Amino acid sequence: MEAAVAVMESEGVDTVFGIPGAAILPLYAAMRTSGIRHITVRHEEGGTHAADGWARVTGKVGVCIGTSGPAGTNMITGLYTALADSIPMVCITGQAPRAKLHQEAFQAVDIVEIAKPVTKWAVQLKEPGQAPWVFREAFRIARSGRPGPVLIDLPLDVQRGTCRYDPALDEPLPVEVPAPSPARVRAAVDLLLSAERPLILAGGGVIIGDATEELADLATSLNIPVQVTLMGKGAFPEDHELFAGMAGLQTQTRWGNQAFLESDLVLAVGARFGDRHTGDLSVYTKGRTFIHVDIEPTQLGKVFEPDLGVVGHARPTLAAFAECARALSAPPRTRDWPARVASLRSTLGRRDDFDDVPIKPPRVYRELNEFFGPDTTFVTAIGLYQIWSGQFQHTYLPRRYLVCGQAGPLGWEVPAAMGVKCAFPERRVVAVAGDYSFQFLMEEIAVAAQYRIPFVIVMVNNEYLGLIRQAEIPYDMNYAVDLHYGEGGIDHVKLMEAFGCPARRVEQPGDLRDALAWAQAESDAQQLPVLVEVMVEREANAAMGPVSIDAVKEFEPAPELARTAD
Fold it and tell me: What is the model's pTM?
């Protein structure tokens, strides 16, 4: 276990999240003399989400540790979340001694088989001499190709064993950064240069691959507007003149959808074409050529077959595109298409300046945009508040907007925000949560209070399961979605105070700015999580109805736009 800990340290791990237990104590004993900080969480799922947040913001491999039995099964949701969003993570579980595994020993569960569908690799350490090599390979696999999670299961008797290990002779295993085929680079650039209305679609792979500078270089050198997916928010600054919004069914902008529908070519980089982004594929693909770039070959053609597939890491591939285009000395592209996108942006925006009481959700995001600076890291999860965030929230830098995009586990925000703050104590961190999601893992507030991990929580509270209520409308029902527990529901302010943390409830839109300023000041001063609970109108929807034609003078949508534009 001393060798395993030395490997973790050399892989850049300075913080781990977990819960000690009898079957994992040899590993904990080895960590005592290391430089690794351990954060004791209150639930192993919370530990995985904290490691996930740490990994997303650092680009390194996050680590969560637990004992045997339910500790591992509690990690499954976090493993699935990391696999779905391509987040490198290593989860370590204790296990009963090898000789007891077939005898139904206490908390002896086959966690390797349980975890295989939601990991890149799940392995049980069989011999002490394998320890440094298995841990090295775990970190290599987590970082390689399309990143993802690994689970290592450690029988107690193996942990107690010894092995030969010299840290002076050891180092991380190399990770391949695959370059694209030159022929496919040339074919892609030819398509880009021949298109009249091209778009670059930047997915989460651009951020994971640290390719934002190469993206900006390609876009500006060829004068091509850039859209982002939800996972790609921050890959391209949203105040840039070439920013083209976001297309999709829910997390989208009106003008982004219209720009997408008017495009004739889409260069998608590190995007998986999720169903909430594409909607009806016949509408999404009609009339446009697709170039799909991904580091994982099996992603190409998974949702629909692109006109050209390119296998490669986002950073060298985007750089190769720009270099090839410069070598061809193509004449500068006209400004007509970027100007059209800019016109759509100026005419198809959504209001966010409401003064209504109860507070309308867009006003909440307007205040967040205006109060917090571009270096603030926002963490959000799933539900109506995620949809509003995608529609209204502005992002300018990579790894500053963290969202569990595909798995969407409720409760993700608080532990993920802890992971971010542990990685960058100097950075402002804001978790935007719904009332129901907050209640999923609210016990992790105790962890942030214990370790003095300060961040701001903004709760968008409509006191019921708003997104599910919207989904129930076609069924003509309002069933099992209320969260009232008497007058006003749960008192989240008192709940936070029970953890020793400040909290304030806001019911007037004019009080939002002062409440955010108070929360940030209190969090900084007391080094604690601070809650601002915003009571919003219960019937607020996510603006997923058809566009109002009367409100848009210069715009006559195609028939299919009623289904996709807003």
Answer: 0.92
